[in-house]
């Protein structure tokens, strides 16, 4: 199993960060990496997600929401092509550091026959996509937070 994890500290309350991250209708206005095109953030529901991995063409897949713990964590599991070829479980974890600071942790665990090869070719680009998304979430969360103070 292979894993990619990134994290970022955000100067905004955890509930604001959560709201922005899970507002799928407005995700495309700030997120350069991941767009949720269809679906609801409810356990057992299927989403339609398009990833714009730097250096690659956009990819669309349909993960199933595994867990939703409001203002703390959500995760989904999906695959490319056929299950067992290149599968991933993605998690977004929100850690409240204090009333005005939050840490976002974004991780994906990859499995499947082609996971080692695909990650050998794309790991750096996937990690760059995670980091771009994290920075964008930080920027928009901090702007919204400052506007409400």
UniProtKB/TrEMBL annotation:
It comes from the Archaea. CDD domains: SRPBCC_4. It holds the Pfam family Polyketide_cyc2. PANTHER family: CHROMOSOME 9, WHOLE GENOME SHOTGUN SEQUENCE (PTHR36166), SRPBCC DOMAIN-CONTAINING PROTEIN (PTHR36166:SF1). This is SRPBCC domain-containing protein. The lineage of its organism: Archaea, Methanobacteriati, Methanobacteriota, Stenosarchaea group, Methanomicrobia.
